[in-house]
Amino acid sequence: MTKKPLLMAPRWHVKSLLIISLLSIFVIGVLLINIPVAHASPLPPNYPVPGGIAVVKLDSKQRPAQILYGKRKVLVANHNNNWYAVVGISLATKAGKKSLTVKSSAGSKTVYFDVHDKKYKTQYITIKDKRKVNPYKNDLDRIIKEKKVIVSALRHWSDKENVPLQFKLPVAGRFSSPFGLKRFFNQQARKPHSGLDIAAAEGTPILAPADGKIINTGDYFFNGNTIFIDHGQGLVTMYCHMNSIEVKTGTQVKSGQQIGTIGMTGRVTGPHLHWGVSLNNVRVEPKLLLPKQYQQDLDLSLH
Ligand SMILES: [Zn+2]
Hints:
The protein is mainly β. It has two helices and 20 strands. The chain has helices at about 10-35, 135-155; strands at about 55-60, 65-70, 70-75, 75-80, 80-90, 95-105, 105-115, 120-125, 175, 180-185, 190, 195-200, 205, 210-220, 225-230, 235-245, 250-255, 260, 270-280, 280-285. Strands 9, 12, 13, 14, 15, 16, 17, 18, 19 and 20 form a ten-stranded antiparallel sheet that branches. Strands 3-2-6-7 form a four-stranded antiparallel sheet, with no helix packed on it. Strands 1-5-4 form a three-stranded antiparallel sheet, with no helix packed on it. Strand 4 and strand 5 form a beta hairpin. The longest helix is centred in the first third of the chain and has 24 residues, at about 10-35. The N and C termini lie far apart (about 65 Å). It binds zinc ion. Zinc ion binds near residues 177, 193, 195, 197 and 274. Zinc ion binds near residues 177, 197 and 274.
């Protein structure tokens, strides 16, 4: 007999073995927690409310060929080797059960998700330039023409495999007006606030929050100097009231690249950026694409 069974070992030996084992488990555990999982492109939080984003996990190993929400194409993302539908929900959506059509080589199937209710606050704004609240007749012609251009930019679709779903803040400033507010201009009801306002001094740089392509720039009646960036698969961002526009339509921009500066063009009460995020042609809460620290006032726990 050359080897002693473990149980026969002296007590101190058993104790140190136990300590070493526990330490190893602890060290391995710490390492596992800190090792980033490969290809874990971050997803927005699941926030299925009017003006929110539903992140719906799909039961499929292959990338679906196409996903439709009603008639609109939906963004498809991969996270930790699972496929997800990332669906923009319009502010006008009523709470309840909604469905997606998921098309693949095996056929077409329906996937359901629930939209929960969310109440938005009301805001009353006084605009000194009355023409910006009740436009003149010739202004209306311009507004109608511009609306077509704006709508077509916001519903732009381009096929792109990896769409950036975590943005940088486009401008250092104060959040001056939240997304979704029910608005009254000079006591008259208008559409709810479709973006996030960030106030900063005139001339402050505005940066692209993620890689994308400039699909339109212009000077619009309400929005002032405006830029639209296409990030792929129906994710489009919009920058309004700018002082200067520093990019050209058709060019690619990198995350963090300066695209213009803060201004007060169009319908404004002071210098700020109106930042809009469009997903499957509906305007959604921009904070959902920002790092978690900016989402503290959104009640994500309910969903
Ligand atoms: Zn705004």
